[in-house]
Design goal:
The protein is 28% helix and 18% strand. The relative contact order is 0.16. The strands form two sheets. A four-stranded antiparallel β-sheet has the order 2-3-1-6, covered by helices on one side. The chain has helices at residues 16-23, 53-63, 81-99; strands at residues 4-8, 29-33, 45-50, 67-68, 71-72, 74-77.
Length: 137
């Protein structure tokens, strides 16, 4: 159950305690984090987690679009790590589809011959020659 909101649009000088004050009106907070900016051009954002989902719903309803310190807040549900991976994978697939150049004379790969019987034998082991390890005293 996701009770965490993603908040953006606030002033870079806004402190976590000031945001917490605004969001505590809607219910008890578990945490409020403002991650450090990755560079000097990064826009600030925060994660606000409520104990109760209905409190988070109320906060989205009331706070989204509200102006604080002359800046308009934009609030949405925070994505879970699983959602982030899915979205990143979809973007990667889209980029691969758009950026891959293909030759019109593309040939298919031929299948490799079976080298061993899966039921009776193990695959052949590959050995690499190695130089002796240095001796440490």
């Amino acid at each position: 159950m996701n009770n965490t909101l993603f908040v953006s649009g606030f002033n870079i000088k806004t402190r976590a305690k000031n945001l917490a004050y605004e969001f505590e009106r809607y219910g008890r907070l578990v945490r409020l984090d403002i991650p450090a900016p990755k560079n000097h051009n990064a826009k600030p954002y925060a994660f606000v987690e409520f104990e109760e989902k209905r409190d988070a719903e109320d906060a989205i309803q009331e706070m989204n679009g509200r102006t604080i310190d002359g800046h308009t807040l934009y609030i949405q549900w925070a994505r879970t790590p699983l959602e982030n991976r899915r979205i990143a994978y979809q973007r990667q697939q889209q980029n691969n589809k758009n950026n891959r150049s293909r030759s019109p004379y593309r040939r298919e790969r031929s299948s490799s011959p079976q080298r061993y019987n899966n039921e009776t034998a193990l695959p052949p082991r590959r050995f690499r020659s190695r130089s002796p390890s240095p001796v440490h005293y």
